[in-house]
Amino acid sequence: MEVTCDLQVDVNGEEIFLVNKEILSSFSGRLRKLFNKPSVTVAAKTLKVIFHDLPGGSEAFELVTRFCYNNGRTQITPNNTCLLHCIAHFMEMTEDVSSSPNLIKLTEKSLEGIPYWTWSEIVNALKQCQDFFPTANSSGIYDKILEPLVGRITTNSDTSPTGSSSESSTLRFSCDTRSTISTKNSSHRAWWFEDLVILNSDSIEKIIKRMVSQKVDHGTISRFLFYYIKCKLSNAASDEKKKATEIVIDLLYSLDISSMSCKGLFGILRVSLSLNLSKCCRSRLESMIGSQIDQATLDNLLVPAPAGMDSLYDVNLVLRFLKSFLSAGGPASLTRLKQVGSLMDLYLSEVAPDSCLKPSKFIELTTALPDAARDSHDAIYHAIGMYFEIHALLSEEEKMKICCAINYEKLTSESCKHLAQNSKFPSRTAIQALISQQSKLKSLLQDTDHLKSFSYPLKVNGYKQNQCNDGEQIILYAKKLDLSMENEKLKAHLQGMQWRVVQLEKICKKMQTQMAKIMKTRISSPSNSRSLPRLCS
Question: Boundaries of each BTB domain copy (predicted)?
Answer without folding.
Answer: 5-71
